[in-house]
Design a protein that fits this description.
Shape: globular
Number of helices: 9
Structural class: alpha/beta
Organism: Alicyclobacillus fodiniaquatilis
Distance between the termini: 12 Å
Bound molecules: cytidine-5'-diphosphate
Strand order of the largest sheet: 2-6-1-7-8
CATH topology: Rossmann fold
Largest sheet: 5 strands, parallel
InterPro entries: Cytidylate_kin, Cytidylate_kinase_dom, P-loop_NTPase
Number of strands: 8
Radius of gyration: 17 Å
Number of domains: 1
Enzyme class: transferase
Strand content: 15-25%
Subcellular location: Cytoplasm
CATH superfamily: P-loop containing nucleotide triphosphate hydrolases
Order of helices and strands: EHEHHEEEHHEHEHHEH
CATH class: Alpha Beta
EC number: 2.7.4.25
Length: about 220
């Protein structure tokens, strides 16, 4: 039987990573966090003072480092020269740079090739912005997960709060909306729902409820 692929796309804070990880665990599929891959490139730009608008410099930088991704019980891990940088990827500085880095054709092409390799030999749940449209256009099931921007920002605010940072909601709404606008308006692989994606609005829903909705779609498709 061919590997099964579940693509989950949507804007920041819609709950993609949380539900993708839970669905993958329930089905015993590999979870691939493509946002973490773009964040790793943004993190490297910041760490090595590489201009995020210069695609050639970014590719040159990537060629100089050993970048690998691993799935573990703690989630999707990014290793740079054998050092786990996963925690640094959630830094607000990385969030502010990542959509600039992700707009370059050369960067996307390299990461897309990597992402497709994961899905070639094993069943995956992959989340991002262009999984159903570009990375895996033949994915078995495509979900476009949304939630209203205020709720998405509140979710992020709770995360910041857990980590001891008190950030005003308005500031988060603005940052999230700006990143969504950049992701949706870029020329290459913009954030948008695939024509055959199933839309799920997670506003007011727990992650568990969204997971159940996705698992019932998997059951209906007789692929799980
Ligand atoms: O977790 P959050 O929704 O905030 O973002 P993420 O999934 O970690 O993705 C970070 C950024 O990477 C996005 O805002 C996009 O700019 C970029 N990205 C992308 O362009 N294509 C993907 N398939 C995944 C992420
Ligand atoms: O990956 P994405 O940016 O779409 O969102 P996430 O990182 O999975 O979720 C952002 C936050 O919202 C996390 O702290 C989740 O626990 C929380 N969440 C939620 O409150 N309700 C949901 N239905 C899904 C996620």
């Amino acid at each position: 039987m061919y590997p099964v692929s579940i693509a989950i796309d949507g804007p920041a804070g819609a709950g993609k990573s949380t539900v993708a990880r839970m669905v993958a665990k329930r089905l015993n599929f590999l979870y691939v966090d493509t946002g973490a891959m773009y964040r790793t490139v943004a993190y490297l730009c910041i760490a090595h003072s590489v201009d995020a608008t210069n695609s050639q410099a970014i590719i040159q930088m990537l060629n100089q480092h050993d970048v690998t991704f691993q799935m573990s019980d703690d989630g999707f891990k990014a290793l740079v020269d054998d050092v786990d940088v996963s925690v640094q990827l959630r830094d607000p500085k990385v969030s502010a740079h990542v959509s600039t880095v992700a707009a370059h054709h050369e960067v996307r092409s390299r990461l897309t090739t990597w992402q497709r390799t994961f899905a070639k030999t094993q069943s995956v749940v992959m989340d991002g912005r262009d999984i159903g449209t570009v990375v895996l256009p033949d994915a078995t099931i495509k979900i476009f997960l949304t939630a209203d921007v205020e709720e998405r920002a509140r979710r992020r605010q709770r995360e910041f709060c857990k980590n001891g940072h008190d950030v005003p909601l308005e500031e988060i709404i603005q940052a999230v909306a700006e990143r969504d606008a950049r992701d949706s308006s870029r020329e290459i692989a913009p954030l948008k729902a695939a024509g055959d994606a199933i839309q799920i609005d997670s506003t007011g829903k727990s992650a568990e409820r969204v997971v159940d909705e996705i698992l019932s779609l998997v059951e209906d498709a007789h692929v799980g």
